[in-house]
Amino acid sequence: MTIHQMECFLEAAKTLNFTEAASRLYISQQGLSRQIASLEKELELRLFDRTTRDVRLTRSGELLLWRWKDIPKEISDSVDMAREEGERAKSRINVAVVGMNGIIEKAGNLLADYMAVDPDTEFEISEFTSIKDMTTGNPDLMMTVSFLPTHEQLREKYGVLCIGKLPLYYVVSRKNPLADKEEVSIEDFRGETMLCLYKNFFAGAEMHLFELLSKQEHVLQKARFYENVNSLELALIANEGIHISFKEFYHNYGDRLKLFPLPDAENQVSASVLMVWRKENEKRFENFIKYLKKLYN
């Protein structure tokens, strides 16, 4: 059964005149009759009672007319909607945001502020937890966090803009004896397990940062990696190791976790919140990039 067969039946059912129905559809009367005959054969139903004097619908035909009468308009409307969505998709900016609490909130506020300035711009936000997610989604921009000052190497192929700094902390469970201290040093963590997030994407950035601070002395002997924030946070609360991150990372650090400035209160270091994009695609969303640079340069 085809849409054309359905259109032929509906026009003939409404007019009860094959000549007039064929004229409205810009086909010959013979062509209309062939389409209806083919439909009746396929459905194994007689839809019209035809005599030399008039044309009438059978009960089966009346039922189909009742249930099918709005289908052509619905098809036409859905095609128009699909075309409209296709045009919108060409201008929509896809932003992939690393799945961390504070970063997702920052991204939402930033994009909402820009849409207030430029209401014609539409964003689509997705979360990612690994580099595989990035290559699959092929976003226009990526909003992520760099724990190490290594993002400069991205500038050869990508546009990179730092849009924020997040002070970093050593984080331990309140169950850990270290939580009773006022201050800690690298040496205090000897023998602890480092809990790290997203092995594929960050490549153990927390561990690398810790090793830099400890001047490669390998104070930590063990590391465990987690594929999502919730699993890592639960392990941390259960005192299965230590972590390095920023306050906004955690759902509820107040009663369960103790944070120490890294490496200390006087020399605390920060993670960089980065917006990264492919330079070859920049023309399509250059106004948004200009807006970011005006805010953060």
Kindly report the average pLDDT value: 85
Low-confidence stretches: none
Radius of gyration (CA) equals 32 Å
Please trace the helix and strand order, writing H or E for each element.
HHHEEHHEHEHEEEEHHEHEEEH
- Strand content is 15-25%
Class by alpha and beta content: alpha/beta
Tally of helical segments: 11
CATH class of the largest domain: Alpha Beta
Order of adjacent strands in the largest pleated sheet: 4-3-5-12-6
Which outline best applies?
A: elongated
- Residue share in helix: 40-55%
Pfam families: HTH_1, LysR_substrate
Family: Belongs to the LysR transcriptional regulatory family.
Protein name: HTH lysR-type domain-containing protein
GO molecular function: DNA binding; DNA-binding transcription factor activity
Topology record:
Elements: H1 3-15, H2 18-25, H3 29-43, E1 48-50, E2 55-57, H4 59-68, H5 71-91, E3 93-98, H6 101-117, E4 123-128, H7 131-137, E5 141-146, E6 158-167, E7 169-173, E8 193-197, H8 199-202, H9 205-213, E9 222-226, H10 229-237, E10 243-245, E11 257-261, E12 270-278, H11 286-296
Helix pairs in contact: 1-2, 1-3, 1-4, 2-3
Could you list some keywords that capture this structure?
297 residues; alpha/beta; Arc Repressor Mutant, subunit A; D-Maltodextrin-Binding Protein, domain 2; 2 domains; 5-stranded mixed β-sheet; 3-stranded antiparallel β-sheet; 22% strand; elongated; transcription regulation; DNA-binding transcription factor activity
